[in-house]
Amino acid sequence: MSYTLRYMKIVGFIIVGCTFCILLSSTCINMYARALTPAVGATLSLEDLGLSLSSPEDHSAAAEAVHQVVMDHGVCFLRRGDNNNFEDDEDDKALVSFARHFGELEKPHPIYSSDPTSPLAVVANDAEHPPDGAEWHTDCSWSEAPPFASVLWPRLLPAT
């Protein structure tokens, strides 16, 4: 099973998923949030909230919404309808712009980044990128101020 993810670390926040949503109110957002388990995690759909990834004017309100869902559910998994794969560099740029609403983006470890000016790292599991590890871990725990979170989103997902 192969996968490819784009990956960023944010100092001070957590989000996992594909894209974003908008804050109407805590109650209204939680009407759209679908809990994954009783303990942790909820999904949100971009289409349910009438937003577009390519619309930077939605980013600030969307960041507030994601923050609310994370505070209520621990992890926010964001969906983009049936096509959850990000297709191109424009999606990368939009997600970097969106992620900056949560705080400073940390530079990735050099083994994952081909561009030293980009906060993006590619994590993959294919013929060119064998698995890097199978154990749970935490990033940068040695740092004085380690990242609070990571942003992950798929460029390629295995069929389900």
From TrEMBL:
Pfam families from the UniProt entry: TauD (PF02668)
Organism domain of life: Eukaryota
SUPFAM superfamilies in the record: Clavaminate synthase-like
Upper taxonomic lineage: Eukaryota, Sar, Stramenopiles, Ochrophyta, Bolidophyceae
InterPro entries to which the protein is assigned, alphabetical: TauD-like_sf, TauD/TfdA-like
GO molecular function: oxidoreductase activity
Stretches assigned to the TauD/TfdA-like domain: 34-153
Keyword rRNA-binding on entry: no
Name listed for the protein in its UniProt record: TauD/TfdA-like domain-containing protein
